[in-house]
Amino acid sequence: MRLVFLGPPGAGKGTQAARIASAFGVPAISTGDIFRANVKEGTSLGVEAKRYMDAGEYVPDTVTNAMVRDRIAQADAAAGFLLDGYPRTVDQVHELDGMLQADGTSLDKVVELTADHDEVVRRLLHRAEIEGRADDTAEVIKHRLEVYAAETEPLSRIYAERGLLVQVDGMGEVDDVTARLLEAIGDRAGAVG
Ligand code: AP5
Known about the structure:
The chain is α/β, with parallel strands linked by helices. It is 59% helix and 12% strand. It is built from nine helices and five strands; from the N terminus they run E-H-E-H-H-H-E-H-E-H-H-H-E-H. The chain has a five-stranded parallel beta sheet with strand order 2-3-1-4-5, with helices on both faces. BIS(adenosine)-5'-pentaphosphate (AP5) binds at residues 7, 9-15, 30-32, 35, 52-53, 56-59, 64, 85-86, 88, 92, 123-124, 127, 135, 144, 174, 177.
């Protein structure tokens, strides 16, 4: 199973990716988590990524693409993976296409997790109180949502035209969202395009 999760900041991608990847026995690969681990370790990648992340901007495609290429080439991703937060730009879509073609594989589904604007802001501000993530301030959240709308929302259409997109409602209890995702991924209920 090769899956991609799309969805705005706070939609619940990371929360659900861990559950769904575990259900399918594949690794959840979060570009945001990999960047944050590098920031924490103080690697050169982390130093470069932090500048963009703290401002709510996307890390440049060249950096991100190379990182994902390395990660999905690792042994645990040979039989499948769930990409959480990649691709996010049209260029990244094409890069991922090339990586998969080179391996003779393809995506099975692209899941877009949807949630109301006010709810995602509420969730992220709540997380800020608990975790203190540098990009969870009101100002940066606003910008992250703008960047998502400009750079990543167009990807839904691309994947819908390929017949790969399923949209799943990310509102409500975490367990209910997981159940909806399993149903949508399992039988393509809610398929778009
Ligand atoms: P990333 O870490 O991917 O951040 P994001 O996309 O903004 O997503 P979030 O982690 O904020 O939200 P989520 O949808 O994963 O929701 P979560 O489950 O965490 O990326 C961070 C940065 O890295 C980017 O801004 C960029 O700079 C860089 N980056 C990453 N990928 C990149 C790429 N491909 N290209 C370029 N740059 C890239 O949940 C959020 C909160 O809500 C949590 O507290 C959670 O507990 C809570 N929650 C979840 N579900 C529910 C629910 N159903 N009800 C109530 N609360 C819930």
